[in-house]
């Protein structure tokens, strides 16, 4: 049986150890917390101190940076990037190739369409059609 982890050197010369998540085989860094019922597809990275709640679905090639929080039943489509310290509320859907900046907040049940970019620190709430709601 092969090993269930991989060591990767970051751009600062530090070696980080990632384990393969049982549901999807995505790579989870030491110090990240991923609920066993979450699915993290292969090719995705969850960095240290990130948290992924029950029922979340993380698509192929997604990068979740340190300290990000992904709520229950969130769906993140392939190749999205969730910035450091960002928070995605319960039931939100993040589209293909979306970028959610550092410290940004996406409200529960929001829909962020494909190729959208949310700047660092911005707070976003949408209806289920993706239309922005007044703050």
From TrEMBL:
It comes from the Bacteria. Keywords: Transferase. InterPro entries: Hexapep, Trans_hexapeptide_repeat, Trimer_LpxA-like_sf. The keyword Transferase applies. GO terms for molecular function: transferase activity. It holds the Pfam family Hexapep. This is Transferase hexapeptide repeat containing protein.
């Amino acid at each position: 049986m092969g090993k269930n982890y991989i060591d990767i050197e970051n751009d600062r010369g530090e070696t980080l150890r990632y384990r393969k998540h049982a549901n999807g085989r995505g790579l989870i860094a030491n110090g990240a917390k991923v609920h066993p019922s979450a699915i993290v597809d292969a090719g995705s990275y969850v960095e240290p101190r990130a948290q992924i709640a029950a029922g979340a679905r993380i698509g192929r090639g997604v990068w979740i940076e340190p300290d990000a929080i992904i709520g229950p039943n969130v769906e993140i489509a392939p190749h999205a990037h969730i910035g450091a310290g960002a928070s995605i509320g319960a039931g939100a859907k993040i589209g293909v190739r979306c970028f959610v900046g550092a410290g940004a907040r996406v409200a529960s049940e929001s829909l962020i369409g494909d190729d959208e970019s949310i700047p660092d620190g911005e707070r976003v709430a949408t209806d289920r059609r993706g239309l922005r709601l007044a703050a």
